[in-house]
Amino acid sequence: MSKVCQICSKGPVSGNNVSHSHRKTKRRWLPNLQKAKVFVNGREVSMRICTGCIKTQSKVRVAKTAESAKS
Questions:
Q1: Sign of the Cα pseudo-torsion (26, 1, 60, 40, in order)
Q2: How confident is the model over 31-66, as pLDDT tens digits?
Q3: Helix (H) or strand (E) segment spanning residue 18
Q4: Which residue of 16, 39, 68, 71 pairs with 24 in a disulfide if CB–CB is 3.0 to 4.6 A?
Q5: How far apart are CA 60 and CA 38, in angstroms?
Q6: Residue numbers of the domain that contains 42
Q7: What CATH number is attached to the domain comprising 23?
Q8: Cα–Cα distance between 51 and 43 in angstroms, integer?
Q9: Is-contact 5 50, C-beta < 8 A?
Q10: φ and ψ of 50, to 5 deg
């Protein structure tokens, strides 16, 4: 399974661990991917998405419900 968000395409990033003596070893930072159900074209689909996208999706959902409550 790939380590890429299916919404924003966020993936692994590489860099160095730097010790106190300044020795460098390679390392990777992985995105925080979770399985979540998302509505796509009116259907609920299970996707692997990052937590940032999950938070954004919940904010969009709250905003839509607030707009519908006002009208």
A1: positive
A2: 999 999 988 888 999 999 999 999 998 877 777 766
A3: strand 13-18
A4: 16
A5: 12
A6: 13-70
A7: 2.30.170.40
A8: 21
A9: yes
A10: -75, 160
What's the domain count of the chain?
A: 1
Largest distance between two CA atoms of the chain: 63
Contact by Cβ (8 Å): 61, 53: no
Cα–Cα dist 46/37, whole Å: 4
**Inside any domain, residue 4:** no
pLDDT at 63: 74
In sequence order, the β-bridge partners of residue 44 are: 39
CB atoms within 10 A of CB 59: 10
pTM of the model: 0.76
- On whether residue 23 sits in a domain, the answer given is yes
Assigned domain for 55 exists:
yes
Whether 8 maps to a domain, the answer reads no
